[in-house]
Amino acid sequence: MDRILIRELVVEGILGVHEYEREQPRTIVIDLDLYLDLTEVGLRDELAAGLDYEDVVETISEHVAGLNRFTLEAVATDVAELALGFPGVKKVRVLVQKPNALEECRSVGVEIERCAKEPQMSS
Asked: Which pTM does this prediction carry?
């Protein structure tokens, strides 16, 4: 399966369990791997045959900026669900990091993978 890579998408949003983390937006850094078939867009060389990266970035940025989450896991889950809603996306890998969350580390983060649900066959 082919992949579209989106690296170091930086968004400001409310994220954290401590009161001081919830007083103002904090930096959230997101990496995405979107798994889908890119054959058609590669052959036709037309954006209409593929996935518009700008649309993906704008949709996820707006969503995350409006969040009020306690955990990185919740943000990653939200982003994965959004990404799987784009046409043709069969699987997504999401890495969400919170820079400077701990003094000892440059950042902390979580990485998840999710697959699109197959349509249920009715009997």
From this structure: 0.90
